[in-house]
Every structure is written in structure tokens, then in C-alpha cells.
User: Which sequence fits this backbone?
């Protein structure tokens, strides 16, 4: 087991972390990712930031035991989505996938048999997220699965800041709750992706498709 799979703390200073990794990373693709630097400082207006929505389909929810099956990437900014620059990959998980899992995400056995290993798409994946703000819905899936996968493959850290639409929606809803609701612990509204989207009048999409969920996340961030 890689030493990097142990629990970790996020860097206190992202700029220093990126600069250090750019010098020390032995994998060329990873070093180039860190050389691209951070997309923005906390003071950068959101309208000036290039973003990319990221979603994974996985065999389960435990990054220590489960595997990435597909990746969806959708570039966007605060006013536009760029579907022509989107990327999607089905990934060979390296072990058999249960029929129950396939019923959820719809990726067939034949697609998985023909899919490349993650190492085959790693450079292109890093190139597509470098220098952009990565936006996800529930960061503990995408960031933790990716960190664990890279640690297993090359024993080097891939960690980056993300904007989490689930956490943003949670904060918005919590700010809207009155004193009475907080005192008496009135149930909060769901922050699942479909439920959050419905509050902004966004259309319902079929869940459990990496590309569709990445698009749904980008639209929710814009809303």
C-alpha cells in the first residue's frame, strides 16, 4: 500500500505546495500540471476564472477499495459552457465489475473490456484540468478517488483546490434557515445534485453518467 493513501491534510499554502511539487514531481505530466499553477487567488472575480466540472462513476463509495469506471469533464465559465471541449473516458477498473454496479451506471462489460487503463489517459486528463478551477458535487468522491489512484500508480501526490457545489448549496440553505429552525433542528433540505438543481429551475437529467453529471454540476454552479 502506498504511503500516500493514509489520511492527509490539505496544504496550508497552495502556492508553496504547487511550486514545490512542480520542482519535485518525477512524473512529467504531474510536474507540468503543477507548473500551470493555481487558476486564481481568493480575490479573483469569479467571472475571470476558467473552470472545469468533474465527475466520476465508481464501483462504490470507498476510495480505499473501489475503483474509477468513468470520467466526465466539462469546461465552463460563469456565463458559458463549452460542450465541444468536453472529455469523457471509460476506465478499466482492473477487476470484474458486478452486475448490480452496471445496473446503476450503465457501463457495460464490453465497454469495460475495451477501456484503457487509467495510466493511458492520465496525461490528457491532467492537461484538461491544469490551470482551471475544478468544480465537483461532493468533493470527497472525486478528489479522494483521484488522490488514491495517483498514489497507487506513481506514489506522488495529486491534490488541488476544488469548488464543491454540494457544500455551497448547504451553506446557502443553512443561511436561509431561521432561528426557530436552527434551535429545533428542523430537517434541512436535500443537497443531492438533482434536488439542488430543482430549486433553481434546472431540468432533470438522468443520474449516474459522468458526462451528464459533470454538465449538471457546471449548470448548478452557474445558477
Assistant:
Amino acid at each position: 500500500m502506498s504511503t500516500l493513501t493514509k489520511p492527509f491534510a490539505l496544504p496550508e499554502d497552495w502556492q508553496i505546495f504547487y511550486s514545490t511539487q512542480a520542482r519535485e514531481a518525477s512524473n512529467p505530466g504531474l510536474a507540468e500540471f503543477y507548473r500551470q499553477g493555481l487558476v486564481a487567488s481568493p480575490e479573483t472575480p469569479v467571472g475571470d476564472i476558467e473552470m472545469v466540472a468533474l465527475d466520476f462513476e465508481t464501483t462504490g463509495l470507498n476510495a480505499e477499495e473501489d475503483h474509477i469506471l468513468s470520467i466526465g469533464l466539462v469546461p465552463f465559465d460563469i456565463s458559458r459552457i463549452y460542450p465541444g471541449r468536453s472529455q469523457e473516458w471509460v476506465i478499466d477498473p482492473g477487476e470484474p465489475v458486478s452486475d448490480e454496479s452496471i445496473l446503476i451506471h450503465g457501463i457495460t462489460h464490453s465497454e469495460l473490456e475495451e477501456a484503457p487503463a487509467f495510466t493511458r489517459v492520465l496525461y490528457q486528463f491532467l492537461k484538461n484540468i491544469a490551470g482551471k478551477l475544478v468544480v465537483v458535487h461532493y468533493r470527497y468522491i472525486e478528489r479522494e478517488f483521484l488522490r488514491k489512484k495517483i498514489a497507487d500508480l506513481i506514489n506522488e501526490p495529486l491534490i488541488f483546490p476544488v469548488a464543491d457545489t454540494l457544500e455551497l448549496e448547504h451553506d446557502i440553505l443553512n443561511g436561509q434557515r431561521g432561528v426557530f429552525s436552527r434551535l429545533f433542528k428542523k430537517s434541512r433540505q436535500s443537497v443531492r445534485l438533482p434536488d439542488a438543481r430543482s430549486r433553481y429551475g434546472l431540468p432533470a437529467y438522468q443520474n449516474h453518467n459522468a458526462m451528464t453529471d459533470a454538465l449538471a454540476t457546471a449548470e448548478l454552479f452557474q445558477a
